[in-house]
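Quick look at the format.
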Amino acid sequence: MVTYIAENLYSVATPAGSPVKPSLLIRVANPILARHWREYFGFGFRFWQLGLSHPGLARIRLAGLSPLLTYAVLWLLILSLRDRYALAAATLVTAHWLHVAVASFFAAPLARMVWASEILVALGIGLLFVDIVERVLAVLSRAAGRPAGGVS
């Protein structure tokens, strides 16, 4: 997979009519990356952090909080609610993080790479909102003496 993605990136990055073939570049790059895999992962990890936290790249913000604080609030909600909605929200946020990680290991995270999966986080926020509304309505219906979820 690494070779396939990297070869496609080299094909896109190599100017048309260049005497250097993308296959040659990948044959040169693969042994270097194999010998320096720790630096490669460190480089990818730093770009992953940048993709999730830099205000110009990450658009996810709750009430003007930074992206990192927004993720912290989301995870606190997920851990405190602990139901099927929270599990789905955790899965969506994790999928976004993994998408940014994969993009970061093969190229510098561009805004469109990060934005492509931010909809997953927005869906997770929506699920948590629905979960909280259902809990509040259940408490209000119990306080009014009606059975939860039923119409009387």
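Next, a different chain entirely:
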Amino acid sequence: MSYGVLLTGFNIKRLTDIKTEIENEFKGVFGDIDLNPDSVFGQIIGILSKREADLWEVSEDVYLSEYSNSAEGVSLDGVIQNNGLTRLPATKSTVPIIMTGTPTTVIPIGLQVRVTTTGELFVSIESVVIPTEGSIACNLESVNYGKIIAPENTITEIVTPLTGLDTCTNLVAATLGGEIESDIELRIRRKVSLRIQAVSTVESIKARILQDVAGVTSVTIKENVNGTVDLQGRPGHSFETAVTGGSNQDILDKIWELKPAGIETYGNVTGIIVDSGGVNHTIKFSRPVTKYIWIKVSIELNLEEVLPADGIDQIKNAMLLFCNSEFTMGDDIIIQKLYAPVFEIVGVYSALIEIAATDTIPGSWPTLQTTNIAIGYIQLPAFDLTRINVVIL
């Protein structure tokens, strides 16, 4: 049998084959010898076989490190450089907060405040001066990298003492950062980037908008290939691009650059593009409609484990983090998925989850259900701690 790099790939020589080969070579040199594992020859052959097997495994790893589907870590970083890509670094969460206090008080860079619900720290990244009105907005970032949750009105504890600074609060939830891009995510992004080389295909248009338009976080494209208007109102031979993030004009410009000639665009945002000949063209795309998601978690406690004192807050925070990472534009809310973050918390024995979705935020909780919620492809599910309720049965 042949080993090493073959036309069919890399065929590794295993320990048993190596041991057999060395035993035969020893017999050829020394004759009829004792090859029992406890004998001197057996021990020597065992050591040599193991060392050679280790080298074969290293060789296989080197071979696999040359391909994007099998390379890992730094090796994968090297492979994707051939496509002009680099791994996305971890980022910090950011949030603007309102500082109130004595006018002329200087808020320095590096002032620390705390999220009261989680204990996470945020730090000011700009220096501002409190005006005569007594309050000013200041931009902060989390001390730690990743998805640091800070719902509205939860950054209220000033950690760095400062004379003249009285209170602080965030009127909006923090924009979540991200962990360093995983190998799986990097491989997916590489595949998406390769589609950019295509011309005017759905996947190419999607990939180019994601890559080229600053601030865009998600793109979904639906096309109507028929000659008549479809059920969603798209004209025949048209496509609709639903985009979150980015500026309207940048998106309109990119769609005009990428769209096939003679194909109509459709959506709830309309703009005018002037071509190189001075002719006006109407370009459309869609902004997703927000669907506010409500979640109620009813739990029974495990008698053998103690729910932490802040267990309810832990469940709510775990649920919010999970939902923000699991569901995005057009993703149906699958109720079974929501059980995963609940049982990450010690002390939970059983749980019942009920959910609802509304187009606005009513004054009281809506009617809940225990079945999945369908989200339209241009709808964006929105989650917040104020719409997550945890009760102990």
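Residues 40-64 form the longest helix (25 residues).

See the schema section for token definitions.
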